Structures are given as structure tokens and as C-alpha cells.
């Protein structure tokens, strides 16, 4: 307590009422304080009257302190005693004093400063959470309120401990029951409000809690009914809105909400309306942000109300006013939420036209330029006047925190803008607004280059990265007005210093990428600068002469063949807001997660230099000295990018660059496999006959999926003539093609159909374009025409999965049967065979692995069989077939869906992958073996019981590598597993192997454990 003099000083600084209350508190605390041998002095008293007296004393003392007095040292000194007493009383659960104790706890956590209370919060969480199911309604309400306050002020270091307590006390389930009781009328409305508020906080903090909520069908049905009820209290609807926002942080929860989300979207739009208070509108914006996590479902759901949705966003960005030169704090927070939601402009879609219709250009300008209406009163301003206004805008300390949002939104609007968009046609000053925005962005871009490269001022460049990115997107916009205006304005601003800036950019990139230590932001801005220069006609020749091609190729090679990557999220601090920091069970927005920014920028710049110079092949003197690899090596790298699971923009860009090397189309892993059948006449069932009598034998199933226009199929019904036998006979008889199709062009087209791309000289391109157009192969036609890919367009997939349906059944020439199946009911719609089977195609199966190729094409008895027995379970065989036809192995459930499975359920999910690991070794399918191995290993950390079962499975299937991983994970737990008896389900020999591994681990071989875990990452 300190010296008597210090105590006297402290007492004098407290009011008389507070001093008296504190003295009474001390006296009351002393009545129940006990000296414990190991724990010192603690408050422990079961006497009801003393408990009641202590609760009254705590309440009186808390009521006596207010304002600055709450931070008084004597208050701080009293916290430990107060927390100790109320925690004990709550644990006693004496019904006569419980309600009072819960109320005073709620008062304690709300009055005592968080900095003082933080170290004692864990002492309260357990007793409070254990009282949530209390039959005393007022007790459970007070406990939920107190817990919510604690969680909102909880430090990150305590989060895991608190979650373990909440999980142990089954708090989430108890709160759900309390909420359902509210709907049943057995609890008051206040109960729903406090329980829903507390549950929302829990869901926001811990992703593990979300499955329990969204998977509770009774709760979700009740909440949805509450939304529909027009007589429902508006505050209750707000509680549901917050609850749904928290549920939507889980990708699986979002899908659940959107399954029947009409009422939810209607409520969301109501809350976003400008007539609502700011707090309500913010909740509406936050819910929308969460729901956009599932892009496809969300945009499909709002398709009927897209315009009012966009209007609400734009109003949120526009509905504010200055007060003494500043924007009020609550309006700033609303602006931030609206601007963050406006980042849906990242996605392509019809919502873009509504943003323009709602005047997004004027709104963005108002967020950049203070009193823009007074400065842009003239219908026309010269470029010098526009630059002057833009400089004034950027120099002003005005809404600086929103500028990165403005640049990002402007960039996405530009890159998705229609080619024929012309602001002059819209009037109302739109042309001037867009011109000023472009000018502001170009000036900010120039500042970024100066500060980050020339002046090496990286810290201030954080605010300029988004502006530089916006300029890049405007320069590469499909809209002719935007791109030409951006090129003209940037060229004007660069002026005579443009060449000097370019030199510094190239020097910075070459220096930064030559060592291990580099500044990510500096590289990104320098690379964006170089990519922008590549689009400016007057600088393109200078870029090439200064070694720009070599720099771009070096970056391309570096980024595509190593772990050299940069995530924009690392330096764009406005992007990862509170919503995205807590997301689970789904990937974040593709743009946020993309690790291939430099690779994409390199491709964009490279293709501009190739275009302006007429191609590398036509200018060997220009490019040869700068080539860091041979042309075949470069083509191989670009094809690898197309085959990889990267963003669609990156894959499109690589395919676009390939077109300048006379490779047209879309390389893929599956295309490489199917391409092996192109010149193989085995299993051909269709003849294409040209007018000169030349004939090509092909596979009908591949043509039917990849280019149905070449077959005489009725597209409306999905069939041609009745009966598969008649179809096959007609196809074998031959399909006679038009006289306009010559042999060489048809061979090239078949190359595209089988491989996904073709190689052709310029002399063949014109005829190929005519044939591609006739066959309705629009993506191929786009590449043959060398049209720039549209941002956001899906990369054309090479997928033959449709062949497993009715369209492919007519071409089926083999059936697959599994060794074992648990299917009880089976009926085939194609044949009368009662054994479960899959109708497949020998040509697709034989290209999948050497074993099947030998089996089906050997000419021996097995190759003529109509049935292939697959030595696995039905589930494993289905996954294998999906890989054969799509190139992708289906993944097991992940996130909360996986975490909530018991060990047996997890084993059922993993066993097919273990089987396929074995089969892939037997059939020599390395890609399947590697994929299945990674799937199994990535799941082994979840439970030790699963490791035991997988160890046994790996031993049964003689999978040495998988056995080693499971063994390495079990070795540290050997003693624990022996004590629990969990090793008894293993064979004796395996138990001995685990024991030996444990001994080795204890002798210092534990480093192998980390290696084993990393194998599955």
C-alpha cells in the first residue's frame, strides 16, 4: 500500500464519499479473506450474508468513483480484492446473491479502466461463462453483458486462453439456447439483445465458434423468420444484422446465409439507405463487405437490385459535409466503410455501369478536392489549369486517409471500363471530372517515383502506391478515351525529365533484384513505373535502348522460378480492414492474395515493347543482346505460367505474350496430357473428310466437348440422331467439311482442340481466324486477332468433365468398376448393368497414365474388354476419374467443416486419398501421388488418433513416405499414447516401431519432426 504519508496523500485526492466507501469495502473484504498455505491471502467465504455485504460494498465503492478518480492508485489497489471476491461469489452460484454479484461484476468491468483491469480479466471469464445457462434470466443477461465488455477489451495475448475457457464451458451453445428461448417467449427482449451482442463478439474474435452457429438450422431459421417479420423491433433487426456479419466472416457461413438471402439483402439495403442513422448504415456496409467474400453467389443474389445497391454505396461516399473545415468523426468512419465496399469495383460486372450512372467520378473528385464545385465552375479548363488544380488538391491536407481508396476505385473503374465509353456523351461535366482525376493520379504517380526512387523516401510513398497503380490501370484500360487521356497527360507531366526518371527506375530495379535484401515497396513502384513507360509511345524506343527488355525478362524469370514474390497486402495498409483480418474457411479476394504482382507487371510491359517493335523475331538485332534466355526457354516459362493455378489476369497475359511468338491459345496441364492422343489413331471413332478426299481420324468425345461445331450434333437437345449406335456409325462413315477448309488449317485447329493451343505462322492466321469464327471458338479468335485480354475475364478452362454426362455417354467405350463400394441403391441411366460403374472413354484414360495406355492399347485380350476393374474403393475411383477428366483432384472438406468432424469421419475422407497414393505408385501417376500425399499430410496435425489410423493405413498399403511422416508426428507423443491406451489398435510390430522412433526423437532427432510437417504444406 506504500507509506502512511503516501496513503494520506492518496486519500486526500479522493472525495469523502469515496474514502468512506473504500474503508467499508476493506472492512467487508477482510471478513472473507483467508490465508492459504500455497496461495497467500485469498477471499473465500460461503456465508451468504457476508457475500451480500461484500457485493453491496463493492457496488457502493464503484458508484463513488467517477471521471479521473477511476485512475486513482487506491482504486487500482482495490481491483485485485474486488475481482477475487466477486469471482468466488459467482463460483458459489448461491441463488440468493447471484443476481447481485452478476450485476456488480458488470459494473466492475465497465467502470474500472481497461489498463487497470486487464491483468485480472481471466479470473472473471470462467465464472461468468459458466453462468450463461443460468435459469435466473437476469443473471445470464448480466454475465453476457460483462463478458462482452471483457472480450471487446481483451489483449491479443489472452485470446487463446479465453477461447479455451469458453469452449470448456460450452458458452456458444448455451448462448444459442438462450437466443432460441427469446423466440419462444420465455425470455425478454433484453435477453436477445445482450446474447446476440455477446455472440457477435465471440464470432468476430474466434473462427472456431462460427460453425456452431451457422450449422444450427433451428437458430438460422429463427433469425431469418425474424428478418421477415415486419412487426419486429428495429433494434432486434440490427442485432441480427451484426450477428449475420460475424457469421459471414466464415466462408461456409457466408454460403449458408446466401442460400436463402433475399430477406437479408433487402434488410441490408434498408440499413445502407441514407435515411438511416450513421451507425445503422455502417452495419449495413459491413455486412455487405462480409457477404462479398463469396463473389459469385453475392452478385447473383443482388442482380435484381444492383442499381439501388450501388446507389447506396455512392451515397455513403457522398453524404457528408464540412464542419469548420473538417469532417465529423462518425461521418469519416461511414466514409471509410462505404469506400471499402466500393472496392467491389475490383470485379467485373454490370455494377460498373451503375457506378458511372450514379456519378462516381464526381464523388471521387469531391473526396480529393475540397470545394470542387467552386473550382470547376467553368465547362472547359486547359491542361495547365487542370494540372494547377490537381497540384493544389494533392498538396492540401484534406481527407488524406481516404486517398488510397480513391485511387484503387478509380483504377478498377478504368480497367473494367467499356471500350466505347466516352464521358463527352454523358455531359454534366463528366469529361472534366475524369480529366482532373487522371491528372491528380498522374501527379501522385510522379511524386511516388521521385520519393521512392530518386529521393529514396520510402515512408511517404506508401500513400502513392495506389495512385501509381491507378495510373497503370488507366494506361492499360480498354477504354480508348481513358487510356489515351492518361498517356497524353502522363507524357506532358513527365516532360523533359522523363528519360532521367526512366534511368533511375531501371537502375533501382536492377540493383534491388540482384541481391537478397530488397525493399518491396520500392521494387513495386519502380516496376509499375517501368510498365507505365512501356505503354507511352514516345518512350518505348528509349526503354528498349536502356535495357528495359532485359530488366523485364530478368524479373519474369526471377518471379516465375523462385520464391521471389511480393504481396500487395504487405504495404497497402487500407486493404486489410477489420473484416478481412478475421476471415476463415475461404480465400480472401483474389487481388488481396495475389503474390504475382511483379510477374503480371513484367508481362504487361513486355508485350507493349514487343508490339511496338514488330515482334522479337522481326527485330533480332534489337532484342538478341537483351535476351536472358533462349526463345524456346521463354516460351516454356510462359506456358508454365498458363498451366499454373495463378490469377486469371496473369494467365491471360502470359497467353497474350505467347501469341507474339506464334503460339495461340491457352496451355494447361490437362491439355498437355490429352495432346498425346492427337496423332494416335487408337480409339479414333470419327473421320473428318475434306473435299479433296483427304481424311483425318479423330476422337468424337474430344471434339464433342472442345469443338462441337465440327460434329453434326443438335445443340438444343444435346443429341444428333436417335441412338448411340447410329451416331457412331454416322461419325465413322465420315463428316464432310466445307471446301473452304484445307488440310493444314484443319490440322492446326485440331492441335488447338487437343492441346488447348496451336503454333502457326502468320501465313496461316487469316484462315485460322475464319475457321475459329465459324466454329464459335471466341477465345481462340481473340488470341489469333491479338486482342488485349479483358481484365477479370475467366481463363478458358480445358475441362472434359462434361463427357461424364449425357453428352459423352454416346462416345463411351469402356466402363470402370471399383473393387468395393458401399452404395446401396444404384441405377444407371445408360445401361442395365447393376454393378456401380462409370461410363468412360479409353482415349482420355489412356492419356492419363502409362499403365492404362498399355492396358487399353496393347492389342491383347484386356484391351478389348468393355470393363476395367479399378482396385480401389468407389470413392477413390470417383476422385481418380475426376482428375483424369478435369486435371484437378477434388479436395477434402477444409476449415470449420473439417475441424468439426470426429476422427472416424476424417478417416473416411482421407482413406480414398491414401488408396490413390498406393494406386498412383502402382499405375505410375506421379502427379496424383504427389497431390494425394500432400492432402493426407496436411490433415495429420489435427488429431493424434488420426495419425495412428493413417500410420496403420500406410503400413497396410506399403506407403513408406506416408508412413514416415505419420511416424514422425507420433514419436513425441509415444509415452502419452501408451498411458491412454490409444496405441492398442495398432499391430504389435507397429507399436514397437513407434517406440523406437520415440527413443530416437528423445535423443535429439526431433528436428525431423518439423521437416515431416512441412512436407504437407
TrEMBL record:
Q: In which pathway does it act?
A: Protein modification; protein ubiquitination
Which ranges carry the BTB domain? 684-762, 812-893
The record ties this protein, via SMART domains, to: BTB
Q: Name one Pfam family in it.
A: ARM_6
Alphabetical list of CDD domains matching this protein? BTB_POZ_ZBTB_KLHL-like
PANTHER family for the chain: BTB DOMAIN-CONTAINING PROTEIN, OS06G0674800 PROTEIN
Q: What is this protein called?
A: BTB domain-containing protein
Organism this protein belongs to: Rhamnella rubrinervis
- What does the record give as the organism's lineage? Eukaryota, Viridiplantae, Streptophyta, Embryophyta, Tracheophyta
Amino acid at each position: 500500500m506504500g507509506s502512511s504519508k503516501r496513503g494520506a496523500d492518496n486519500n486526500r485526492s479522493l472525495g469523502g464519499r469515496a474514502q468512506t466507501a473504500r474503508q467499508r469495502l476493506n472492512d467487508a473484504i477482510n471478513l472473507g479473506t483467508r490465508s492459504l498455505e500455497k496461495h497467500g491471502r485469498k477471499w473465500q467465504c460461503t456465508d451468504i450474508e457476508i457475500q451480500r455485504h461484500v457485493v453491496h460494498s463493492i457496488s457502493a465503492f464503484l458508484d463513488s468513483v467517477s471521471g479521473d478518480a477511476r485512475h486513482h492508485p487506491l482504486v487500482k489497489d482495490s481491483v485485485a480484492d474486488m475481482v477475487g471476491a466477486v469471482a468466488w461469489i459467482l463460483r458459489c452460484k448461491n441463488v440468493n446473491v447471484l443476481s447481485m454479484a452478476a450485476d456488480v461484476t458488470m459494473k466492475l468491468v465497465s467502470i474500472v479502466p481497461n489498463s487497470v483491469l486487464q491483468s485480472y480479466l481471466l479470473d472473471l471469464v470462467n465464472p461468468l461463462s459458466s453462468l450463461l445457462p443460468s435459469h435466473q434470466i437476469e443473471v445470464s443477461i448480466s454475465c453476457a453483458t460483462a463478458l462482452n465488455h471483457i472480450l471487446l477489451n481483451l489483449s491479443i495475448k489472452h485470446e487463446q486462453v479465453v477461447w479455451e475457457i469458453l469452449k470448456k464451458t460450452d458458452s456458444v451453445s448455451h448462448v444459442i439456447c438462450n437466443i432460441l428461448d427469446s423466440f419462444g417467449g420465455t425470455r425478454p427482449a433484453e435477453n436477445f439483445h445482450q446474447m446476440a451482442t455477446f455472440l457477435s463478439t465471440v464470432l468476430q474474435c474466434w473462427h472456431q465458434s462460427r460453425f456452431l452457429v451457422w450449422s444450427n438450422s433451428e437458430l438460422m431459421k429463427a433469425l431469418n423468420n425474424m428478418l421477415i417479420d415486419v412487426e419486429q423491433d428495429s433494434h432486434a433487426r440490427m442485432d441480427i444484422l451484426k450477428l449475420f456479419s460475424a457469421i459471414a466472416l466464415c466462408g461456409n457461413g457466408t454460403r449458408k446465409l446466401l442460400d436463402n438471402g433475399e430477406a437479408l439483402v433487402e434488410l441490408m439495403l434498408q440499413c445502407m439507405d441514407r435515411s438511416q442513422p450513421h451507425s445503422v448504415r455502417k452495419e449495413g456496409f459491413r455486412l455487405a463487405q462480409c457477404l462479398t467474400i463469396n463473389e459469385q453467389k453475392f452478385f447473383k443474389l443482388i442482380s435484381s437490385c444492383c442499381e439501388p445497391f450501388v446507389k447506396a454505396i455512392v451515397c455513403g461516399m457522398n453524404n457528408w459535409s464540412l464542419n469548420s473545415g473538417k469532417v465529423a468523426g462518425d461521418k469519416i468512419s461511414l466514409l471509410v466503410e462505404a469506400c471499402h465496399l466500393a472496392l467491389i469495383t475490383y470485379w467485373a460486372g454490370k455494377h460498373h455501369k451503375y457506378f458511372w450512372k450514379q456519378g462516381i467520378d464526381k464523388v471521387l473528385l469531391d473526396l480529393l478536392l475540397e470545394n470542387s464545385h467552386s473550382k470547376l465552375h467553368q465547362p472547359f479548363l486547359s491542361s495547365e489549369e487542370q494540372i494547377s488544380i490537381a497540384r493544389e488538391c494533392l498538396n492540401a491536407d484534406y481527407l488524406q486517409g481516404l486517398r488510397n481508396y480513391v485511387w484503387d476505385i478509380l483504377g478498377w473503374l478504368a480497367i473494367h471500363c467499356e471500350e466505347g465509353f466516352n464521358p463527352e456523351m454523358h455531359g454534366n461535366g463528366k469529361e472534366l471530372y475524369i480529366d482532373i482525376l487522371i491528372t491528380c493520379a498522374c501527379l501522385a504517380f510522379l511524386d511516388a517515383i521521385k520519393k521512392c526512387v530518386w529521393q529514396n523516401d520510402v515512408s511517404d510513398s506508401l500513400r502513392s502506391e495506389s495512385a501509381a497503380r491507378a495510373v497503370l490501370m488507366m494506361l492499360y484500360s480498354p477504354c480508348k478515351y481513358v487510356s489515351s487521356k492518361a498517356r497524353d497527360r502522363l507524357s506532358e507531366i513527365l516532360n523533359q525529365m522523363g528519360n532521367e526518371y526512366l534511368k533511375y527506375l531501371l537502375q533501382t530495379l536492377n540493383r534491388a533484384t540482384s541481391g537478397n535484401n530488397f525493399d518491396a515497396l520500392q521494387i513495386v513502384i519502380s516496376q509499375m513505373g517501368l510498365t507505365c513507360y512501356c505503354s507511352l509511345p514516345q518512350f518505348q524506343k528509349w526503354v528498349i535502348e536502356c535495357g528495359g527488355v532485359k530488366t523485364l525478362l530478368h524479373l519474369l524469370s526471377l518471379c516465375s522460378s523462385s520464391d521471389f514474390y511480393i504481396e500487395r497486402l504487405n504495404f497497402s495498409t487500407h486493404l486489410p480492414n477489420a473484416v478481412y483480418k478475421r476471415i476463415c474457411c475461404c480465400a480472401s479476394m483474389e487481388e488481396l492474395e495475389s503474390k504475382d504482382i511483379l510477374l503480371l507487371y513484367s508481362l504487361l510491359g513486355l508485350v507493349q515493347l514487343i508490339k511496338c517493335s514488330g515482334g522479337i523475331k522481326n527485330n533480332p538485332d534489337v532484342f538478341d543482346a537483351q535476351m536472358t534466355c533462349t526463345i524456346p526457354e521463354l516460351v516454356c516459362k510462359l506456358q508454365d505460367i498458363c498451366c499454373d493455378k495463378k490469377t486469371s489476369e496473369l494467365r491471360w497475359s502470359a497467353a497474350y505474350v505467347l501469341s507474339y511468338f506464334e503460339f495461340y491459345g491457352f496451355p494447361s496441364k490437362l491439355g498437355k496430357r490429352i495432346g498425346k492422343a492427337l496423332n494416335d489413331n487408337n480409339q479414333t471413332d470419327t473421320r473428318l473428310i475434306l473435299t479433296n478426299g483427304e481424311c483425318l481420324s479423330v476422337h468424337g468425345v474430344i471434339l464433342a466437348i472442345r469443338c462441337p461445331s465440327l460434329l453434326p450434333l443438335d445443340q438444343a437437345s444435346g443429341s444428333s440422331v436417335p441412338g448411340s449406335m447410329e451416331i457412331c456409325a454416322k461419325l465413322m462413315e465420315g463428316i464432310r467439311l466445307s471446301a473452304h477448309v484445307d488440310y493444314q488449317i484443319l490440322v492446326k485447329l485440331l492441335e488447338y482442340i487437343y492441346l488447348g493451343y496451336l503454333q502457326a505462322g502468320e501465313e496461316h492466321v487469316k484462315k485460322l481466324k475464319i475457321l475459329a469464327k465459324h466454329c464459335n471458338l471466341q477465345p481462340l479468335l481473340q488470341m489469333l486477332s491479338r486482342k488485349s485480354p479483358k481484365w477479370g475475364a475467366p481463363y478458358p478452362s480445358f475441362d472434359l468433365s462434361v463427357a461424364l454426362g449425357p453428352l459423352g455417354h454416346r462416345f463411351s467405350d469402356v466402363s470402370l468398376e471399383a473393387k468395393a463400394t458401399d452404395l446401396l441403391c444404384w441405377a444407371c441411366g445408360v445401361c442395365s448393368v447393376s454393378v456401380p460403374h462409370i461410363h468412360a472413354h479409353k482415349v482420355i484414360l489412356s492419356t492419363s497414365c502409362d499403365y492404362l495406355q498399355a492396358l487399353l492399347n496393347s492389342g491383347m485380350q484386356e484391351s478389348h474388354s468393355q470393363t476395367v476393374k479399378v482396385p480401389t474403393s468407389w470413392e477413390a475411383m470417383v476422385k481418380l476419374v475426376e482428375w483424369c477428366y478435369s486435371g484437378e483432384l477434388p479436395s477434402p472438406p477444409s476449415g470449420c467443416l473439417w475441424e468439426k468432424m470426429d476422427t472416424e469421419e476424417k478417416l473416411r475422407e482421407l482413406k480414398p486419398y491414401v488408396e490413390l497414393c498406393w494406386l498412383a505408385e502402382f499405375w505410375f501417376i506421379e502427379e496424383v501421388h504427389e497431390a494425394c500425399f500432400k492432402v493426407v499430410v496436411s490433415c495429420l496435425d489435427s488429431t493424434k488418433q488420426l495419425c495412428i489410423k493413417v500410420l496403420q493405413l500406410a503400413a497396410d498399403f506399403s506407403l513408406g513416405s506416408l508412413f514416415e511422416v505419420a511416424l514422425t508426428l507420433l514419436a513425441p507423443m509415444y509415452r502419452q499414447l501408451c498411458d491412454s491406451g490409444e496405441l492398442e489398435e495398432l499391430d504389435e510390430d507397429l507399436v514397437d516401431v513407434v517406440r523406437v522412433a520415440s527413443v530416437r526423437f528423445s535423443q535429439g532427432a526431433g528436428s525431423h519432426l518439423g521437416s515431416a510437417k512441412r512436407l504437407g504444406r
